[in-house]
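Whiteboard transcription, Tuesday session. T.W. wrote the structure tokens on the left side:
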């Protein structure tokens, strides 16, 4: 059994509790927020007349309308009782769990004021809170909060798009300069090399060339006609222009395919790096892909590594990717590195404290290396325990935050109060930022409470793994880096296809049983071949299918760190599983 008193302190005080144990004082906090809001409205423009008179509020017509609304609210309330009960520790299905009290209160309080963080004109306070919350997240992942830039998004998908958007602008700046050099002075260039000179060399070469803004704009692929641009690049590089590529590991989230589609890359340009037997980014494979892009004269728009894969919570060797990119940088090849830490970024809160010891040393190094990447995606609405919809996109420095063609110097652009110029989304809520801010101000994003709480979720995964292994010898576990447990059910020697069949059937039966919620995931040999080989070998099975069906449990609920909860519910979970094994 896990023993983590610090984590319990955090979960007990910062969550409502599965039985609404903290209801009394939470009601008081909500009440105080409402009263304060009512008073704030009354305190402004005190001489203005009341718009809804007491007599009107007592009229029959008015009361009828009030009743109509009350009725509709009751209907909604009743409907919501059929909603998935993600608050209970029995819910270990997808990447969602109970939200924290600071997040809920921060979200609610801000909702009442309804700021629009698109611009300071309509979010005088919301925008400031957003900047402060971004600085907190920057500190958590190891960026210098004074240099890092970022904003909240509608989720991880949009945050990943933000990275591609910026990487595309950076590439376009560099290629425009090279194209301008060719067209005005006949300087032939290699697109791979020209696209990766990095900001310092770009500034220096631009100054040296004396190219003015209008000339660069005339050579921009973002601004110009894409077909003309292709022909011009073909002439300038002496080889057919085939566009950039985006390198992602095979364990990436579906949002990357969407990004390739949205940014017009063509799925051909969406290169999958192979995975090792652990299901993590294979660095040898990365080298080969970079070499191929270089060979083919195609820029690498960005390399993505994943900290906390959606399927299994695996943490890629981010440090290894950084080391390789640093070595290339020494040769003058500066490739954008984005870390998709939508799920696992909050594990950075464990670093530097006792909490980190429940991670493998290699995973600690990987999480620590996010600080070296150009940009990162975080999803506070996952392991930040913040309500939907709340993602975040951050860059290590202001130059990486540029999201413009050549109209305005990027420093001015980033410093502006109008975020809309730097965000894919237009109108944006301040609620997610405030939920994150209030979490940072109370629980904090350090190893002390938050990190201990996340450590307890990993210990819960370990406790489940031991208990399942002891009770069900046919359970075959995937390697696990964090708080997600994936396993299949296979008898010694049997074929993968048979195991898939059994695991799938058990999942269907579990789905029909309200006692616990788990999820199912299917891995394909196209991405996970090495892992699948090792997995099937663990029961001497026959590798006869290109798919691997798995039961998946995501342990986010903080109350599993309570020994009473674990004592009561873990055996019940094992029993449920055994019942459905057939
Ligand atoms: C969840 C997730 C996303 C997408 O985030 P949304 O908030 O669902 O848009 C992207 N990448 C990873 C690794 C994720 O786990």
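and on the right, the sequence the group agreed on:
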């Amino acid at each position: 059994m896990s023993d983590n008193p610090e984590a319990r302190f955090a979960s007990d005080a910062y969550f409502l509790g599965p039985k609404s144990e903290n209801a009394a004082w939470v009601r008081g906090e909500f009440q105080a927020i409402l009263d304060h809001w009512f008073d704030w409205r009354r305190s402004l423009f005190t001489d203005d007349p009341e718009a809804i008179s007491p007599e009107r509020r007592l009229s029959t017509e008015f009361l009828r309308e009030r009743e109509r609304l009350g009725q509709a609210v009751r209907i909604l309330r009743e409907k919501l009782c059929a909603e998935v009960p993600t608050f209970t520790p029995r819910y270990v299905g997808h990447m969602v769990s109970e939200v924290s009290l600071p997040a809920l209160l921060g979200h609610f309080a801000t909702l009442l004021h309804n700021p629009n963080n698109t611009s300071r004109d309509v979010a005088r306070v919301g925008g400031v809170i957003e900047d402060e919350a971004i600085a907190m997240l920057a500190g958590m992942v190891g960026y210098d909060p004074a240099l890092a830039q970022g904003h909240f998004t509608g989720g991880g998908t949009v945050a990943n798009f933000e990275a591609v958007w910026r990487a595309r602008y950076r590439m376009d700046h560099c290629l425009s300069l090279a194209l301008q050099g060719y067209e005005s002075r006949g300087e032939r260039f290699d697109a791979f090399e020209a696209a990766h000179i990095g900001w310092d060399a770009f500034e220096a070469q631009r100054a040296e060339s004396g190219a003015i803004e209008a000339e660069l704009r005339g050579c921009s692929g973002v601004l110009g006609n894409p077909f003309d641009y292709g022909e011009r690049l073909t002439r300038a590089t002496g080889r057919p222009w085939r566009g950039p590529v985006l390198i992602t590991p095979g364990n990436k989230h579906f949002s990357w395919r969407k990004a390739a589609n949205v940014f017009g890359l063509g799925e051909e340009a969406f290169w999958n790096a192979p995975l090792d037997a652990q299901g993590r980014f294979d660095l040898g494979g990365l080298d080969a892909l970079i070499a191929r892009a270089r060979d083919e004269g195609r820029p690498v728009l960005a390399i993505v590594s994943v900290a906390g894969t959606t399927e299994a919570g695996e943490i890629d060797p981010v440090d290894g990717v950084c080391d390789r990119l640093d070595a290339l940088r020494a040769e003058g090849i500066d490739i954008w590195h984005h870390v998709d830490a939508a799920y696992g970024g909050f594990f950075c809160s464990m670093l530097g404290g006792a909490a980190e010891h429940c991670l493998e040393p290699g995973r600690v190094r990987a999480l620590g290396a996010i600080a070296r990447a150009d940009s990162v995606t975080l999803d506070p609405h996952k392991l930040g325990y913040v309500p939907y919809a709340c993602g975040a996109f951050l860059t290590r420095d202001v130059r990486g935050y540029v999201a413009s063609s050549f109209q305005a110097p990027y420093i001015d652009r980033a410093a502006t109060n109008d975020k809309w110029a730097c965000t894919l989304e237009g109108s944006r809520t301040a609620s997610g930022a405030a939920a994150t801010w209030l979490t940072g101000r109370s629980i904090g994003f350090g190893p002390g409470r938050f990190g201990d709480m996340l450590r307890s979720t990993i210990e819960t995964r370990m406790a489940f793994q031991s208990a399942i292994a002891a009770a069900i010898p046919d359970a075959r576990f995937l390697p696990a880096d964090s708080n997600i447990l994936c396993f299949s059910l296979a008898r010694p020697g049997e074929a993968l296809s048979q195991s898939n069949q059994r695991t799938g059937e058990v999942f269907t039966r579990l789905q029909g049983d309200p006692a616990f919620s788990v999820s199912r995931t299917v891995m394909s040999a196209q991405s996970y071949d090495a892992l699948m080989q090792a997995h099937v070998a663990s029961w001497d099975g026959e590798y006869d299918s290109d798919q691997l069906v798995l039961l998946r449990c995501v342990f986010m609920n903080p109350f599993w760190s309570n020994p009473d909860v674990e004592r009561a519910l873990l055996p019940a979970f094992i029993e449920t599983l055994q019942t459905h094994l057939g």
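Someone added at the bottom: The domain at 454-579 is CATH 3.90.1150.10 (Aspartate Aminotransferase, domain 1).
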